[in-house]
Amino acid sequence: MPDHDNSYKLLFSHPEMVADLLRGFVHEEWIRDVDFSTLERVSGSFVNDDLRDRESDIIWRVRLGGSWLYVYLLIEFQSKVDSLMAVRMLTYVGLLYQELGRQQRGADGRLPPVLPLVLYNGIPRWTAATEMADLVTEVPGGLARYRPQMRYLLLDEGALDESDQFALRNLAAALFRMEKSRDPEDMRRLVSALVEWFKASEQSSLRRAFTVWINRVLLPNRMPGVRIEETKDLQEVETMLAERVVEWTEQWKQQGLQQGMQQGLQQGKQQGLQQGLQQGLQQGKQQGRVEILLRQLELKFGPAVVTAVDRRRVEQADSATLQRWLEKILLASTIEDVFAC
Q1: Residue 227 — left, alpha, or beta (φ > 0 → left; ψ -120 to 50 → alpha)?
Q2: What is the mean pLDDT of the chain?
Q3: Which 3 state secondary structure label does DSSP give 40?
Q4: What's the pLDDT score for residue 56?
Q5: Which residue of 109, 155, 187, 220 shows the fewest CB atoms closer than 10 Å?
Q6: pLDDT for the residue numbered 63
Q7: What distance in Å separates the CA atoms of residue 215 and residue 228, rounded to the nearest whole number?
Q8: Could you write out the DSSP letters of every residue in 78-128?
Q9: pLDDT tens digits for range 82-108
Q10: Predicted confidence (pLDDT) per residue in 24-40, tens digit
Q11: pLDDT surpassing 90 at residue 151
Q12: Which of 51-60, 83-92, 124-133 has the lowest average pLDDT?
């Protein structure tokens, strides 16, 4: 996913994005002592060739109290969880410390702190160990004390609840919400909010980075096969979405039907064309009910209330159950009322 990788790297090459990422999603006491006005990108000439070759990784430093804190940000787009991520991060941070040992040791000879941070936006939720010691077999007799001790901070986008941070104008949260959005009108509102936020600032470069990401990554992923004219500014993106929101909403609803029909036609080669087509139509209708119910749940109870568990429950339900929930949502006071037997 070169476009996705490059556009995310472009976004998080802006100090405002890194500051909002830390402010909004690192819920630890030391954050209050960070001077975000001192954020600066560590240049490629500072690190060695082994780190410089890792194009998806970004290194920042910021003042924490009287010393520098280094933030090693690894952006991970792979579709599968890396069970050895702790080993990778131990290696990368070790290489960074090797370079810091040559250039940035304090007056007492000690090294500055490093925050290893993995930003993951794959579809399956992250299940790999975040502590290096958890990957090493425990041996009795005192040998365990020699296991490497390093933990990385994981930010799994799909598991984050960013609604509160978005209300506080958090740019990282806005990015994550747009990643999750499956509704053109919701996306239009998010872009509109970004336009308003940027009006009060001089962040033209970051505004352009968001525009590039929406044009080249977000919209093509949401509308595969549909020709989308590239816009030059967020204001143009907002206008374009406003003009086409109704049309695109209908197209997005039809995607489930079309996908189901295609699957059915492929199966029809083995089971008979008519049977396959019928199955495809049924799958399409089923997917349509799923999308409609999820959208109604979000509109009535709020996106933050609809959990990943709720989504899986809806996606795995049969046709009769979906129809029953669609009828119950009209009078339900809570999301629990919808799913109650």
Answers
A1: beta
A2: 78
A3: strand
A4: 55
A5: 109
A6: 94
A7: 8
A8: -SS--TTHHHHHHHHHHHHHHHHHHH---TTSPPPPEEEEEEE--SSPP-S
A9: 999 999 999 989 988 888 888 777 778
A10: 899 999 999 999 999 99
A11: yes
A12: 51-60
Quote the CA–CA distance of 198 and 179 in Å, as a whole number: 19
HSE of 137, CA atoms in CB hemisphere, 13 A: 3
Task: For residues 29 and 256, give the distance between their C-alpha atoms in angstroms, rounded to a whole number.
Answer: 45
First to last CA, the chain: 43
d(CA 3, CA 217): 7
pTM confidence score? 0.68
Alpha carbon distance 64, 39 (integer Å): 10
Q: Give dist(CA 267, CA 308) in Å, integer.
A: 30
pLDDT for position 18: 94
Contact 42, 59 (CB under 8 A): yes
Q: What sign does the CA torsion over 230, 233, 236, 241 have?
A: positive
- The b-or-e profile of 200-228 (16+ CB within 10 A means b, else e) is eeebeebbebbbbbbbbbbbeebbeeeee
> Between helices 234-271 and 273-301, what is the axis angle to 10°?
150
Taking the C-alpha atoms of residue 310 and residue 55, their distance in angstroms, rounded to an integer, is: 37
| Structure tokens given for 94 | 């070790």
Whole-number Å distance between alpha carbons of 154 and 157: 9
One-letter identity of residue 197: W
At 169-186, the pLDDT tens digits run: 789 988 888 887 767 777
Residues 299 and 322: beta-carbon distance below 8 Å: no
